[in-house]
Amino acid sequence: MKRELVLPPDFDDYGWEVEYKGVFWGGAVRVDDRLINVIFYAPVRLQQDIAADPSAGRLFTEKHLLVVARVTLENMRWVVENAPDGFFE
């Protein structure tokens, strides 16, 4: 199963901002002939967003959420290539 990170065409224009914010909702992963939306989070930003959401006090779920040390292009590519088999099902 081949996986490929798919980013918006203008990602290079604002990639630095994604790293700074610690979150990126605009990515996808191409698995064979399917395109799967994914969300990338840095751990600190994820913790902040969970704490700020009163409904997340008991449960926080997000399909295809990938947590990386820093939301950089290199880290996003790495996690897509190394995610466990079946993650993108």
Walk me through this protein's architecture:
The mean pLDDT is 91. Strands 1-2-3-4 form a four-stranded mixed beta sheet. The chain contains three helices and four strands; from the N terminus they run E-H-E-E-H-E-H. It has 89 residues and is α+β, with helices and mostly antiparallel strands. Strand 3, helix 2 and strand 4 form a beta-alpha-beta unit.
Largest sheet, in brief, is: 4 strands, mixed
Distance between the termini: 11 Å
Q: Please tally the helical runs, counting DSSP H or I stretches of 4 or more residues.
A: 3
Radius of gyration: 13 Å
Classify the beta-strand content into a percent band. 25-35%
**Largest sheet, spatial ordering of strands:** 1-2-3-4
What is the helical fraction, as a range of percent? 25-40%
The overall average pLDDT, rounded, is 91
Low-pLDDT runs:
none
Which class of secondary structure composition applies to the elements? alpha+beta
Number of strand elements: 4
What is the string of helix and strand elements?
A: EHEEHEH
What's the shape?
globular
